[in-house]
Amino acid sequence: MSIAALQAAWAARDPQEKCARVQALPPALDLAAEAPPTALGRPGRPAQPALLPPHQVPRRRLGSATGRVALLHAIAHIEFNAINLALDAVLRFGSRMPADFAADWLSVARDEARHYTMLRARLKVHGADYGELPAHDGLWEAAEKTADDVLARMALVPRVLEARGLDVTPGMIARLEAVDAQAEADCLRVILAEEVRHVEIGTRWFDWLCQRRGLERVATFHALLAEHAPGARHAGPHNHAARAEAGFLRVEYLPEGVD
Predict the structure, then answer these.
(1) Cα three-residue angle 193-48-43, rounded to 5 degrees
(2) DSSP 135
(3) pLDDT exceeding 70 applies to what percent of the chain?
(4) Bigger pLDDT: 188 vs 26
(5) Whose C-alpha in 3, 46, 49, 117 is 20 to 30 A from the C-alpha of 241?
(6) Rounded CA gap, 157 and 146, in Å?
(7) How many Å apart are CA 113 and CA 116, to the nearest integer?
(8) How far apart, in whole angstroms, are the C-alpha atoms of residue 102 and residue 77?
């Protein structure tokens, strides 16, 4: 299969079409002979939802049906963006990395497409759909910041943004179960279990790149955090078990002096 199918999935604007194209991709692609795109730009996305600064996106309590829809919509938006991030990693960096790199991130894209589809189905149960509420563009902004360096991409996207999901999702599951939203809690439980592997993939390739470049892993990670995400080392809560499973060392993410 040529790279054209991968580019078509990346460029698809309709979420349902994008998910179908992603699921039709093969498990691996040999991109060694492919030149990385010279002007990849932004991936395909629908005209809606409207994108706002994060602090302007309304927050709603989970005790109401409206609040549960808002949460489902927010997470569906994250998962849709995560599809594009995984495809972008393959397109942007795959030809300069071992073949296993593309295979790993293609598998992530397939997982994210399933997550998005599952969440959209729950939205429809509630009489809603993706695109009806505003969202923010934080995930893609991180992709743009790291477009020139695969090391920074592995550090900032899976090891910061997705790892933060490991920390906050158990609390969301508990809050949903407290208001008898078991179906929504079950969706998040599936996503949490699979996101551990996604973060582990990022950790593994970050470690590989550090070794390849002769860099000390912890110091390099801290330097990238200081440059791109200075607030990423925080007091918690942290999902230490999930982070350990994903390959983290505590010294990488805990503030100095905290253990």
Answers:
(1) 65
(2) B
(3) 95
(4) 188
(5) 117
(6) 9
(7) 5
(8) 23
Q: Which residues pair with 51 in a beta bridge?
A: 135
**Residue 30 pLDDT:** 74
Task: Work out the angle at residue 28's Cα, subtended by the Cα atoms of residues 90 and 2, and round it to the nearest 5 degrees.
Answer: 75
Per-residue burial over 226-243, b = 16 or more CB atoms within 10 Å of its CB, e = otherwise: eeebeebbeeeebbeebb
Tell me if 57 sits within 8 A of 135, measured CB to CB.
Answer: yes
CB of 51 within 8 A of CB of 106?
no
Residue 160 DSSP symbol: I
- Contact between 85 and 157 under an 8 Å Cβ cutoff? The reply is yes
Dist. CA 14–CA 177, nearest whole Å: 32
pLDDT, residue 257, reads 46
Phi and psi angles of residue 51, each rounded to the nearest 5 degrees, phi first: -105, 125
pTM of the model: 0.94
Most confident listed range (57-66, 212-221, 234-243): 212-221
Predicted local confidence at residue 76, as pLDDT: 97
Q: What is the pLDDT of residue 37?
A: 64
List the structure tokens of 57: 């996106």
The Cα 205–Cα 188 span in angstroms is 26
Q: What is the pLDDT of residue 197?
A: 98
- In the chain, the domains with their CATH numbers are 4-25+59-253 (1.20.1260)
Q: CA-CA distance, 62 to 165, in Å (whole number)?
A: 18
Nearest Cα to Cα of residue 176 among 70, 63, 66, 73: 63
